[in-house]
Write a structure and sequence with these properties.
Layout (H helix, E strand, L loop, with lengths): L2 H9 L4 H10 L4 H12 L3 H13 L3 H19 L2
Helix pairs in contact: 2-3, 2-4, 3-4
């Protein structure tokens, strides 16, 4: 994955979501997408994380947390961890 390609996309008017989708199509994971978006668009971490979650998991960050993180935390609490 070359940042130059994504710089070119941005120069041609691509928005952060389009860039995130292109990066994902090339196999980028959430952390790589967050770093890319923050680097290219100077997005706040929370906004870049939201976009990466939407592209990688097909869910908003809130939906992802409700579906996966909340049940995990509840299980950890039941286990006394």
């Amino acid at each position: 994955m070359s940042i130059e390609q994504f710089q070119g996309m941005k120069a041609q008017g691509a928005d952060p979501l389009e860039v995130a989708r292109a990066a994902r199509a090339q196999g980028a994971g959430p952390v790589e997408i967050i770093r890319l978006l923050r680097s290219l668009f100077e997005l706040p971490f929370a906004e870049a994380k939201e976009l990466a979650t939407r592209v990688v998991f097909g869910l908003t960050l809130d939906q992802y947390q409700q579906r996966f993180i909340a049940p995990l935390l509840e299980e950890l609490e039941r286990e006394g961890l």
